[in-house]
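> call design_seq(struct)
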């Protein structure tokens, strides 16, 4: 009998242990973690075993390819409440670095690609003489409520307006430009959906660019409601038709931060424009758009015989608009004298050089933001008594090494890009001399 009681007691204890232990299944891109929890109401304790983090690197090429840290967009690393959750206990120095990188690494992928794949755009100067069509461009800016959201450089709508303002300043004098917004009425609640989904309004009439009038038009609206993208695309036909003739090339540029939310079909609307008598090309810039939004916007741009660009910061947005402007200006009628050509190409090379410098600066700013995250995080961990001075010093040394390596990498990429500009300029001017 006593033997039977002992067996039953052992089974109860074994079952209790199994109920108190949970094992997280490993997912792609994640490391395996195991936590043991005692569910007894009397004890109420929780014991966390050591967490394994992905291995980090000090190599610059690896660093710029690292995934964004899981805490970067959530809050400030220096906040006590955040670092209280960091599992620093029982970690080696290397594991501590791995954990901080996993939490606070910056995403360099987009800016790295711009510099790595950089090719200077001299499209408008490829031939000394060009007899092509005048550009007729309609710009449509998303004014849905989500455009009030912030990215690392500021509020999305403010950044979009500034980029479009710069776009207008460089627009060819003899070409035509218009500005339309959509989703700027009603509100982003169900009560305002009907009005918002019917709202798309021409803010700058099709005409040559006038700085004062254009800037005034940009200030007439603010982020408000839903996203009637398809309706706005359809309205683009009327915007472009005003100035369209056999001598114009007609394009629709759209800046949006999300998908259609009013039940329309942007891809069908874009295809209708492309197939119309105006032969419109639809170019879409997705500003800080999620995967679902990118898929829809890409389909719309493809259906409209145009291109899709995805951007996440001010510099990327300005760069995309600059590329679109270069394509527009490439078809602009030009007939330079040789001296004018030299002046124009030299001036353009200086502008391109400045753009490369801005890309380099953006790269460095992201790197410094990441370094600040690490330094603030280890200071907070020291304040909480989770790490000692020796561990903090080890992390600081690794952080400094990562920063130095990335700086050298950025500098090399920027120098290579500047050299490409110089060589392209020399080739174009040498070809002009031979004509």
């Amino acid at each position: 009998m006593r033997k039977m009681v002992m067996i039953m007691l052992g089974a109860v204890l074994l079952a209790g242990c199994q109920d108190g232990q949970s094992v997280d299944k490993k997912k792609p891109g994640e490391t395996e973690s195991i936590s043991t929890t005692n569910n007894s109401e009397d004890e109420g304790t929780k014991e966390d075993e050591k967490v394994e983090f992905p291995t980090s690197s000090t190599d610059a090429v690896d660093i710029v390819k690292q995934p964004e840290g899981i805490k970067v967009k959530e809050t400030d690393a220096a906040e006590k409440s955040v670092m209280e959750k960091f599992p620093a206990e029982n970690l080696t120095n290397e594991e501590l670095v791995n954990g901080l990188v996993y939490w606070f690494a910056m995403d360099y992928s987009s800016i790295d690609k711009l510099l790595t794949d950089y090719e200077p755009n001299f499209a408008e100067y490829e031939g000394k003489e060009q007899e092509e069509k005048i550009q007729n461009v309609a710009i449509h800016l998303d004014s849905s409520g989500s455009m009030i959201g912030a990215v690392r450089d500021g509020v999305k709508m403010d950044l979009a307006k500034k980029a479009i303002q710069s776009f207008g300043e460089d627009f060819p004098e003899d070409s035509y430009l218009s500005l339309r917004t959509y989703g700027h009425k009603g509100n982003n609640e169900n009560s305002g959906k009907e009005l918002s989904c019917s709202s798309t309004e021409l803010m700058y009439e099709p005409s040559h660019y006038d700085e004062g009038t254009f800037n005034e038009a940009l200030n007439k609206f603010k982020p408000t409601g839903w996203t009637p993208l398809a309706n706005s695309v359809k309205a683009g036909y009327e915007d472009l038709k005003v100035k369209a003739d056999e001598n114009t090339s007609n394009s629709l540029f759209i800046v949006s931060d999300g998908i259609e939310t009013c039940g329309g079909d942007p891809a069908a609307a874009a295809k209708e424009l492309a197939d119309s008598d105006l032969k419109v090309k639809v170019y879409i810039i997705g500003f800080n758009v999620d995967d679902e939004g990118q898929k829809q916007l890409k389909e719309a741009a493809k259906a409209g015989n145009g291109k899709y660009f995805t951007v996440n910061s001010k510099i990327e947005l300005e760069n995309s608009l600059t590329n679109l402007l270069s394509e527009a200006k490439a078809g602009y009628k030009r007939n330079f004298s040789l001296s004018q050509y030299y002046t124009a190409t030299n001036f353009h090379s200086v502008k391109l050089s400045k753009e490369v410098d801005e890309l380099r600066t953006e790269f460095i700013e992201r790197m410094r933001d990441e370094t600040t995250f690490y330094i603030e995080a280890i200071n907070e961990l020291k304040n909480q008594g989770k790490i000692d001075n020796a561990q903090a010093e080890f992390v600081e040394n690794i952080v400094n090494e990562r920063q130095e390596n990335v700086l050298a990498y950025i500098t090399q990429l920027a120098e290579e890009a500047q050299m490409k500009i110089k060589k392209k300029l020399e080739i174009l001017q040498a070809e002009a001399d031979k004509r």
